[in-house]
Amino acid sequence: MPLYHMSARSQQNPSYPQRFEVPDEKVPWSAPFPEYQPTPYTFARKDASFADPADPNSIPDLKQRVTYEAGGLQFDPSGTPLNPMGRTGMVERGRLAKWGPNHAADPIVTRYHPTTGELQFVAIKRKDTGEWALPGGMVDAGETVSSTVRREFTEEAGALQDPKLQARFEELTAELFGSGGRVVYRGYVDDPRNTDNAWMETTAFHFHCSKELGAMLPLEAGDDASHVKWVTIDASTKLYASHLQWVETVVQSLTSKMRLHGLVIGAAVIALPLILAVAAGVTVVRMSRARRS
Ligand code: RP5
């Protein structure tokens, strides 16, 4: 996470009104900023049944809501939750449904390209900002984050027209997600929808495809994604919100595993002739002893 959130202060979400400009040094709540006049904005939803009421003080369990941020939930004197990373130039909930943390889950699905061997991950193109992103989504009420990660991946990457391909996709994803994955990040997301009073938090899981699975996993755009594809990771890769940071964590861990694997193989290649020579020497000694006796 950068020192100060960047996307959460930006105009990257084109449907947002202009935010009040917050310079880096004014982001922390501890920095005095008497001229601060954040823009109030709450998106008027057609289906508001799962959204919070307009008044945060009317929510009985607000103070008990789960946050992954170490300091716990902070509130302003009126009882409204305060963004743990500081000012964003906007108050109220923006396009987020909940006051305070809004929970998501993100799958980082990787493979080595079947012919080039390049490390790749699955990305979707978001319709709201047009940026490439991990195929994550909001955790539904009563749902575990691991089920969300699988559901979102299936919805966003697996809307296949051919029923046979769809069935195969489901088999393969069951195998992939059956492993449970590895948690690589849990906490605040620098999301362009965040406000001073509502923000995204996520759990990002890594799943690595076997060679066979990586070659077979069919991908097609679906749900709120206009495109989905395998992306080769290189210096030019750009992703939505703070997604790139978690992908980089995965790349580092896979690269160091590969290095270790290479070292083990290298050591085995060097050691094998020695082991064979020693073994041959022992046999010769044994044979000559046997001849003498
Ligand atoms: C991001 O928003 C999360 O990391 C996740 O990828 C996404 C969830 O929101 P929706 O895609 O469901 O809008 O902050």
Unreliably modeled segments: none
Helicity, as a percent range: 25-40%
DSSP strand (E) fraction? 15-25%
Total helical segments: 4
Amino- and carboxy-terminal Cα gap: 75 Å
Largest sheet: 7 strands, mixed
Quick summary:
The protein is built from 4 helices and 11 strands.
Supply database-style keywords.
single chain, 293 residues, seven-stranded mixed beta sheet, two-stranded parallel ribbon, 22% strand, binds 5-O-phosphono-beta-D-ribofuranose
Describe the structure.
The protein is α+β, with helices and mostly antiparallel strands. It has helices at 145-157, 163-178, 211-216, 243-292, and strands at 39-42, 74-75, 81-82, 90-94, 100-112, 119-126, 132-133, 137-138, 182-189, 198-208, 225-232. Strands 5, 6, 7, 8, 9, 10 and 11 form a seven-stranded mixed beta sheet that branches. Strands 1-4 form a two-stranded parallel ribbon. Strand 6 (119-126) and strand 7 (132-133) form a beta hairpin. It binds 5-O-phosphono-beta-D-ribofuranose. The site of 5-O-phosphono-beta-D-ribofuranose has 12 residues, from strand 5, strand 8 and strand 10.
Topology diagram in text:
Blueprint: E1 39-42, E2 74-75, E3 81-82, E4 90-94, E5 100-112, E6 119-126, E7 132-133, E8 137-138, H1 145-157, H2 163-178, E9 182-189, E10 198-208, H3 211-216, E11 225-232, H4 243-292
5-O-phosphono-beta-D-ribofuranose is lined by residues 104, 106, 133-134, 136-138, 189, 191, 200, 202, 241.
